[in-house]
Amino acid sequence: MHISPVLWQFLVKWLNASALFPREASTIAPYADALYFFLLLITVVGLTLVGMLIFGFSIRYRKEKHPVAVQVEGSTLLEATWTIIPLALFLIVFVWGALLYFRIYNPPTNAMNIYVVGKQWMWKAEHPGGQHEINALHVPTGRPVQLTMISQDVFHSFSIPDFRVKREVIPGRYSTVWFQATTPGTYHIFCTQYCGTNHSAMIGEVTVLSPDDYDKWTQESTSGMSLAQNGERLFASMGCNACHSGSAAARGPNLAGVYGSKLQLASGSQVLVNDAYLRDAILNPSQHITAGYAPIMPTYQGQISEDGLIDLVEYIKAMQTNYRVQQTLTTSQSNQTAPTTPGTVKP
Amino acid sequence: MSATHTIVNLPDQRTATIPKRNYLNNEDGLLSWLFTGDHKRIAILYLISITFFFFIGGAFAGLIRLELLTPQPDLVASDTYNKFFSMHGIVMIFLFLVPSVPATLGNFLIPIMVGAKDLAFPKVNLLSWYLYWIGGLFTMAALVLGGVDTGWTFTTPLSTHYLNTHVVTAATGVFIIGFSSIFTGLNFIVTIHRMRAPGMTWFRMPLFCWSNYAASILMVLGTPVLAITLVLVALERLVGIGVFDPTKGGDPLLFQHLFWFYSHPAVYIMILPGMGVISEVISTFSRKRVFGYTAVAFSSVAIALFGFFVWAHHMFIMGVSNYSALVFSLLTMLVAVPSAIKIFNWAFTLQKGSITFETPMLYAFGFLGLFTIGGMTGVFLGALGMDIHLTETYFIVAHFHFVMVGGMLMAFLAGIHFWWPKMTGRMYPESLSKLAAVTTFIGFNLTFLPQFILGYLGMPRRYHAYPPEFQVLNVLSTAGATVLGVGYMLPLLYLGWSLKYGAIAGNNPWQATGLEWQIQSPPLTENFIETPVVDHEAYDYEWLAHKTAQEVTTVG
Ligand code: HEM
Ligand SMILES: [Cu+2]
C-alpha cells in the first residue's frame, strides 16, 4: 500500500518471485509485512551484534593471545544500556503490533457479513443471500468482508495466509474476522487449529472476484432462499411464532426491531442484542428473561444445528416489522417475498 | 586461606587413577541402585531414563519429517501421523525437556555446589524417579495400546468428546510425571534454603543453583495447575462433568487458560536450568567471573515470577478481549528483556577473558546463537498483529525448537560434556565431540530455519499433507533433520565408549572454581568428608590459582 512505495514494491515483487514470501492479497497484508520486515531487521541486527561480540572477544581474548584473564565485576552503565535499548525496541514493537491487531480485528461498520461454520472436517460458508459453499468462499475485491464464525464441534481456526488474517473458530461462541481483498485470484484457506483426523484436509479456497464477477456469481449460485427466509420457515416450524407473534396478547416479546437494541432483562441488567445474544437466548432462554415476561420459553438446545441458528438469527435481524421478512438482494426471482424497502439488510 | 578446604585426594593429573572408593562402586548390584538414596546415583538413573525417552521422541521426529518429505499423505495414514506428532510432543516435553537438566545435572550437582552431603529429602528424590517411570509407562502404554492423537496440548473438546484414543491413559501419565517434577522442585528449594555449607551465602552460590532455584519455584507453583487441568479433562471425558463443554454451559476457553497457565511457565522450567549451565560453562572456559553476576541471578528469578503473567499470549487469536490482549502482549515484551540482558552478560563475560574452546564451550556458543534467534522470534509472536499471521504455523514450530532444542538441548549437551569427567571420572574423545557439536549446530539450522519461511508462507503446523508449493523447504528441513540425527547419535556412542576407554579425568580437568571440582572424580557417596567452609565468590579464579599453588607446594 502506501508504505515507502518504490522500495517496498521492489522488495515485495522480488520476494514474491522467489517464492519465499506469501502474496499480498488484502489491504492488511502490506501493513503486516511492514512490521515483519522491521522485526526481521532488528533480529538480524541483534544477532549480528551478539555474533560479533562473541567472535570478536573469542579472537581477541583467546588463551594464546591473552593468557591471564582480567577479572571485571560488571558495569552498571553497560548493563543499563542493554536493558534500555531492547526494552525500547520491544515497546516499539508492542505498540506497532497492537495497532496492527486493532486494524485486523476491528471490522469497519460497512462490512458485508458472511457466516462460516467450521465442522470436522470442512468449512461451510453461508452468504446472507442463501448461497452455500463448502471449503470455498467467494468474495469481491474492494469491499470489506466480515466473517462471523462458529464451530459445531471442536476448535478450528480460519486462516488465509495471503490475506494475513486468522481467527480461532470456537464451539459455542461467534468469533469474527474481516478483510478486504485487493487482487482477484484464488488463495488457500487453512484450518490451523489441530482438530483431529482430517485436520490437514480441512482446507479450502477463497476466490476473489471483481465486483461485477462477484455479482454474477451471486446470481448464479443462489439457492432461491436467503438465510433469513430459511430462518422464517424455521421460526414457524419450531413453533417460535406461537409466542413471538408480535400481537398484544402474545406470551413472548415481539422480536421485530429487537436486533441492535438495548434490552431490559428481568434480572435488572441491560443487554445489547447482537448475534451472540440471540443465539444464546434461543439455547438458554431461562438465563435471559426479558423484563415483563414469564420464564416459559423452552430451550432449543440440541434441536437446532448451528446452520439453523444462523438462519434464525438472520431472520430476527431482518425482522424490522412484525409482518414478514424483507426481501434480500439476490433472491429477486423468489415470488414469495414482499418488495424491497429501504433499511433492509443486504448481503 | 584455603586451609579449611578438605581435599580428598589430589593425584597429579598425568598419573591420576579412578579413586578406589566412589559413589559408583561404593555398593554393587542392581538393587543398590534401585534403592539408592544418593542424589548422584539418582541423577544417573535419570540420565539413562531421559536419554531413553529422548531417542523415542527422536524416532517420532524422524517419522514426522519423513512423512513431510512429500506433500502427499503417503507414508502413513492421517490418524497415525497425528499420533506421531502427539507422541513426539508428549515424550519430548514431559519426559525429556522438563526433567532434563534439573533431574540429571541438577540432582547431581546442586548438593555438591552448595556444599551439602545430599538433597534435603533423599527418599523423596528416589520416589520422584519412580513416579517419572510410572508416568512414563502410562505414556508408553497409551502408545502401545493404540496411541493418542491429542497433540501434547490435550485441547478440549477435541480430547474429551471427539477422540477414541487413549487420552485418559496418556493424561494419567503426564499427571504422574507432574508430581515427579513437583517433588524435584521442592527438594531443590529446601536444599538451597537450608543446607548450604558455612560461608555459602546466596551471592556466593553458582548461577546454576540460582537458575534451578527459579525453575523449582515454577515447578512447585505451576505443575499443580496442570494436574488439576488434566483431572478435569479426565472427568469430562469419563463422566461428562461439562466444565469445558459449551453444550452443558461450560467454557472451552477455560481449558486454554488453565493449560497455558502451566504451560507457559513450563517453557521457563525447561529453559532456566539450561541458562544456568551456560553461565557455568562460559565462565569456566573464559576464566572470568560471570559479568554482572547479580543481574543474571535476579533475572532468573524475575523471569520465573513474571512468567506466570503472560499465558494468554497463546490465545491472542482465540477471542480474548482486545484489551486483555494488549496487557498480555505488553507483559510478554517485558519478560523478553531479562533474556536479552542475559545474552549480553554472557557475551561480555568473554571480554578480557582467557578463552579456550573445549566442547562444552562450543555447545554454549551454539546456545547463544540459537537462543538469540529463538528469543527474537518470540518477540514476533508477542507483537499482537504479527501473531495473528504467524501463530499455529510452522513459524511456531521453528520458534519453539530454537528456544527449546536450540537452547535447552544445546545447554544440556554442554552440561553433560562439561560435567562428564566429574560424573564418570573419564574424559570423552575431544575431536569426535567437537565434530558432534558442529554437526548438531549445522543440522539444527538446516532443519529449522526453513520452517520460519514456511510459517510466514502460511503452512499450518500439525499438517499431515500440504500444498505442493511448500515442498522444497520441507525437503531441506528433512535433510537437516538427518544431519541433526547424526549429531545426536554421536555423543551417545562416544560417551558410552569413554566409560571404559576414556582418559582418566582427574579432579579438576577444566580448572574450574565450583565446589564440585574441588572433590574427587567421581565423588564419594558422601560428597565431602568434612563440610567445606566457603570463603570466596562463585567464580573466583584468583582464589583458585592461589589454592592450586599452595597444594602444589604441600603435595610436592
Ligand atoms: C531431529 C530433531 C527434531 C525434528 C526434526 C523435529 C520435528 C518436529 C516437527 C516437524 C514438529 C511439528 C509436528 C507438526 O506440527 O505436525 C515437531 C513438533 C514438536 N517437537 Fe520436534 N523435532 C525434533 C526434535 C525435538 C526435540 C529434541 C524436542 C524436545 C526436546 C522437540 C519437541 C517438540 C514438540 C514439543 C513439538 C510439538 C508437538 C505438537 O505439535 O504437539 N522436538 N517436531
Ligand atoms: Cu479444523
UniProtKB/TrEMBL annotation, chain A:
Its main location: membrane. Signal peptide: none annotated. Binds a copper A center. Its cofactor is Cu cation. Keywords: Copper, Electron transport, Heme, Iron, Membrane, Metal-binding, Respiratory chain, Translocase, Transmembrane, Transmembrane helix, Transport. GO terms for molecular function: copper ion binding; cytochrome-c oxidase activity; heme binding; oxidoreductase activity. CDD domains: CuRO_HCO_II_like_2. Residues 338-347 have a biased composition (Polar residues). Residues 226-320 form the Cytochrome c domain. Residues 11-108 form the Cytochrome oxidase subunit II transmembrane region profile domain. Residues 328-337 have a biased composition (Low complexity). Belongs to the cytochrome c oxidase subunit 2 family. This is Cytochrome c oxidase subunit 2. It comes from Tunturiibacter empetritectus.
UniProtKB/TrEMBL annotation, chain B:
GO terms for biological process: aerobic respiration; electron transport coupled proton transport; respiratory electron transport chain. PROSITE patterns: COX1 (PS50855), COX1_CUB (PS00077). The chain crosses the membrane at residues 43-64, 84-110, 130-148, 168-192, 213-235, 255-278, 290-311, 323-341, 362-384, 396-420, 432-453, 473-495. Keywords: Electron transport, Heme, Iron, Membrane, Metal-binding, Respiratory chain, Transmembrane, Transmembrane helix, Transport. GO terms for cellular component: membrane. It comes from the Bacteria. Its main location: membrane. Pfam families: COX1 (PF00115). Residues 33-535 form the Cytochrome oxidase subunit I profile domain. It is a multi-pass membrane protein. One of its GO terms (molecular function) is heme binding. It is found in: Membrane. The keyword Metal-binding applies. Belongs to the heme-copper respiratory oxidase family. This is Cytochrome c oxidase subunit 1.
